[in-house]
Amino acid sequence: MAPLRESSGDPVLPDPPQGPLHVARARASFPWKELALFWEGEDTLRFKKAIFSALENDPLFAHPRGSRLSVEKYQELNFLRCKRVFEYDFLPVGDMLDSLPRVLALIECLGMYDWSLAVKFFLHVLEFIIHSPDFEAAKFWVGNMGKTATHAVVFAQLYTPGGQCHGLHPFLVQIRDPKTLLPMPGVMVGDIGKKLGQNGLDNGFAMFHKVRIPRQDLLNRSGDVTPEGAYVTHVKDVGQRFSESLGSLSSGRVAIVGMSVVNLKLAVSIALRFSATRRQFGPTDKEEVPVLQYPMQQWRLLPYLAAAYALDHFFKSLFLDLGELQQGLLGKDRSVRQAELGREIHALSSAGKPLASWTAQRGIQECREACGGHGYLAMNRLGDLRDDNDPNCTYEGDNSVLLQQTSRYLLGLLARRGPGGARIESPLKTVDFLDGYADILGRRFEGSSPEDLLDSSVPLAAYEWLVCYLLRESHQKLSREKRSGKSDFEAINDCQVYHCRPLALAFLELTVVRRFHEHTHQPRVPPPLRAVLRRLSALYALWSLSQHTALLYRGGYFSGERAGKVLESAILALCAQLKDDAVALVDVIAPPDFILDSPIGRADGELYKNLWTAVLQENKVLERASWWAEFAVNKPVIGSLKPKL
Amino acid sequence: MAPLRESSGDPVLPDPPQGPLHVARARASFPWKELALFWEGEDTLRFKKAIFSALENDPLFAHPRGSRLSVEKYQELNFLRCKRVFEYDFLPVGDMLDSLPRVLALIECLGMYDWSLAVKFFLHVLEFIIHSPDFEAAKFWVGNMGKTATHAVVFAQLYTPGGQCHGLHPFLVQIRDPKTLLPMPGVMVGDIGKKLGQNGLDNGFAMFHKVRIPRQDLLNRSGDVTPEGAYVTHVKDVGQRFSESLGSLSSGRVAIVGMSVVNLKLAVSIALRFSATRRQFGPTDKEEVPVLQYPMQQWRLLPYLAAAYALDHFFKSLFLDLGELQQGLLGKDRSVRQAELGREIHALSSAGKPLASWTAQRGIQECREACGGHGYLAMNRLGDLRDDNDPNCTYEGDNSVLLQQTSRYLLGLLARRGPGGARIESPLKTVDFLDGYADILGRRFEGSSPEDLLDSSVPLAAYEWLVCYLLRESHQKLSREKRSGKSDFEAINDCQVYHCRPLALAFLELTVVRRFHEHTHQPRVPPPLRAVLRRLSALYALWSLSQHTALLYRGGYFSGERAGKVLESAILALCAQLKDDAVALVDVIAPPDFILDSPIGRADGELYKNLWTAVLQENKVLERASWWAEFAVNKPVIGSLKPKL
């Protein structure tokens, strides 16, 4: 493959620097640049290179960032960096709807640098406000509101003269004077304080005391008030208004899937490069082996590498699906298909956000632990990744609560079908398999050796059975609870833990597995990449499925000791097959060293050199503490303050 | 029960303040003060009260603490607080070995306030150095070394004249001048930089360049050098020297079990008080219910409450076992029993640390998520708890690696027994059940309704089967791997993931379950406490066991759909039975509000009042940022820096 070059003549994908990781790279079974090209496409690779280079060459983006700064300094730098990104104008706002892959790449590049920056930037681009629950009477958590926002969109009950209430409507409210940044009369606005992560972003609260809002500042997409005080709406029924809002809810959740995937990619990149260079113990006292040679270390990390690939593909495909939905909304498409698409994407994003954010949360934690004490040093970035990923589990809907949206969608499909009812199908075909519900429930696992499981078609079939089983169990349980006299509210709540919750997650895992399976088995996959991609697909599928082994046995899909054992053996076999490809697979997804910003994750693998350099560059490493004299002068008088015990 | 009073007349257990949590407390099935007395004992309650009061009344301990301070300020405050704790002299060092329950209470009280303080204090008390892997040539991670230590114990190869090497020996090395805190000649000593947590503690590194150490600074407990340069040792063989060091390794690991339990107690206290007051959704639009009323929220949190009690009891009992071991070491007990006790405690602490630190890690994360956005605010402390708990998974041996010590111990017992061999028994009787290995493997689960599982004797029996099954599987797998021609090193590594690792964890879970079961079923449990304690015991046991359902089915202990379903139903039934006791159970283990330091976890349950007060007390909440003019004056010129894409 001829090297891709930028117009400057620089290669778009430069060779990694020489160093100890060279040995690990030489063992890879495939050419990593070819995978990068297949995975990203040429335009995206060039675009990402341009963004990364601009940041690296601009002193404003020089380190430090994240938790090693004071909150005030961090917010200032983040604000200045955000302004600078506008000056770079990598992708004009007007072009975004027509360049979805570049939007994806821009989110990813800025997020890989720092989520505080990416979120602040996109909040500006979209005039978009993070929806958060009320903090009783006040608005709380609003992004950019803590220190900088001058206007806010506030949802309030709209009353027209005569006292009639038309429900929640959005209003544009000025909260600060843009010249002085002082609050407007009647507005109390402030910063909510330090959070676990993303502290470059100023989240704020606001309280309003009889603030007057001009009529024209009602944001009138779905309803308006005439100068005479009458209410008019072009949306016929509340249901349709609700359905429109589903689309915008999905956008936030799909974005969070992407944020989670980026965090997971960064974490596995750091941990796998570390594991390929860090040596510990060995067959003899003299010889220490890289920790990635241990099956335990492989099993801890490689499934998360596979998950990063599988979820990355899922995110990109869901983002394109969402683009289709948004095009329909803009074009005022009122077709049945458009409504069905909205429901399907709502179901996918409502379980996709939990699955992706939890996988990232657990993956980052595993990476942190797999790097031992080095992972606990702030400079190696795994702490910031964990902290910045954490809100993904909570905002835009708590994960556990959100999963109910997906199980409700699936139960609704089953109910609509009924005996002899309509086919089950959906625009994106994620639920079409449910049409074979009864047949699928009759399936049994037939593999008898680990080799039978080395392709993702086997776990795919098992997942179809699992989703049908959980759907039947959930449906029966819900009916029982209702028949026993419980209210709908109570009955649904009593079905969540062991029924609806695993149903929603298993359905989403199936969807991710199916899409990754199809992507890795399509004819246009270049032959040198087929084996490694199929291994990733099988590993992610089997590893995910192995969380459900108890249900596979309980429902009779598995029987006998052998089934469970071959599943385990297949996972370990895939880990062993992939271990020599791990560093090259990381080269495909890791950003340049400057962006990755982790001494133990640098591409050359000069672990100790990089660590020492970074340690000695920290603040006041060798200096005495400013309070040293306190230590040397005033010795404690032991017991001088002893209380009566 | 007459109220306990201090000599001042104040009650040792004051009533909780009035507030919204009063309703939840009134529903409890048992008197919480009686449980506090049973759980802690009167002397410990008084002792803890005295420590907590001293800290609360001393302005030096006023907030803030933890991640809301700069590292430099935090280290200074932590150092001053540590000095002050010496002045309080709550428990003279010389009394510690005779007052183990008070040592426990002191660790817990200081740790509940702040682990940075507790660790700094105990590092001083024990002249104890955290052992950490070499950072190639340097010592790295040493607690207190970053800014303050003047002397360090360094392990180095001891060579005597003639070049003979006697292995690793400890030396006392002066690293800083105590008057100036400047480094000694030839010593480079510094701070390793910011960590994810415990930043009040100054961890350091040191490198030595031809530093001379006087002969008398060889710490000569096991070996010495005469003035003429000859090596003498009173320890006969390397094996015994190794066995002595096991005892000191166990101390660190047992302490970490306790640290993890404290973190878990604090986290569940915060999350459960929040959940009993935070209302969301409800059967009608008008009526919102506390989130603890939802079975999902109960299932997310109550098993961790049960785990906090079960592991707390395990920790205390293991600490007393360790005390017995240390007494033997001090008394130079060379009996077989003493050696066996050392091995057993080594096995228990090597899996106890992983089990406790991981349970705390997952529990804190669940609590963080269960509190939604409020859990993500730094002031509510769940972030600091997670960060301060995190090193527990890593130091004193990485959890995953450490588990090998326990599985090796169990496999060794099986091998020693052989066909017709000696009884399997141990000083603490944790492995005596293995003597019935073959019979136990023949057992089958017999419960058929959830009621059959509401006592922890049922999961206890299941755990015995599970450990025997995993022991047999591990033994067979290891033999197979060795027969296939693999080296011992390779064979053992290939048995970890699905064999030795779950074996070690299941054995420890069984031990925790057994000790908690016995503690809650003993005749001296006051009758009003029996029901609630037995429910906690059953919930912890069943919930832990439910992670292994796949193995119970695979190995034939469970069969049919019903077994798995009754296990799930029993867990949910216990959660429902315990939900009204949750707040009172928290009152028993939570420290006073000042120590807990979490607005959403305060004992009165005035959620929003407490939050608003705390938010408005934060730094510069309503002030403009110092850099406000940058925002108002220099608008970005969009695209002015646009790179060529």
UniProtKB/TrEMBL annotation, chains A, B:
Domain Acyl-CoA oxidase C-terminal intervals: 457-632
Any one Gene Ontology BP term: lipid homeostasis
Catalytic reaction list: (2S)-pristanoyl-CoA + O2 = (2E)-pristenoyl-CoA + H2O2; hexadecanoyl-CoA + O2 = (2E)-hexadecenoyl-CoA + H2O2; hexadecanedioyl-CoA + O2 = (2E)-hexadecenedioyl-CoA + H2O2; a 2,3-saturated acyl-CoA + O2 = a (2E)-enoyl-CoA + H2O2
**Residues annotated as binding FAD:** G143
* Pathway linked to the protein: Lipid metabolism; peroxisomal fatty acid beta-oxidation
Which positions fall inside the Acyl-CoA oxidase C-alpha1 domain? 247-411
Report the Pfam families cross-referenced here.
Answer: ACOX, ACOX_C_alpha1
Molecular function GO terms recorded: FAD binding; fatty acid binding; pristanoyl-CoA oxidase activity
* InterPro entries, per database record: ACOX_C_alpha1, Acyl-CoA_Oxase/DH_mid-dom_sf, Acyl-CoA_oxidase, Acyl-CoA_oxidase_C, AcylCo_DH-like_C, AcylCoA_DH/oxidase_NM_dom_sf
Q: Which UniProt keywords apply?
A: FAD, Fatty acid metabolism, Flavoprotein, Lipid metabolism, Oxidoreductase, Peroxisome
SUPFAM superfamilies, alphabetized: Acyl-CoA dehydrogenase C-terminal domain-like, Acyl-CoA dehydrogenase NM domain-like
* Cofactor(s) for this UniProt protein: FAD
Active site (catalytic residues): E396
List localization entries: Peroxisome
Kindly list the GO CC terms recorded for this protein: peroxisome
Q: Which family does it belong to?
A: Belongs to the acyl-CoA oxidase family.
Role description = Oxidizes the CoA-esters of 2-methyl-branched fatty acids.
Q: What is this protein called?
A: Acyl-coenzyme A oxidase
What organism does the UniProt record list as the source? Bos indicus x Bos taurus (Hybrid cattle)
Q: What is the lineage of its organism?
A: Eukaryota, Metazoa, Chordata, Craniata, Vertebrata
Gene name of the record: ACOX3
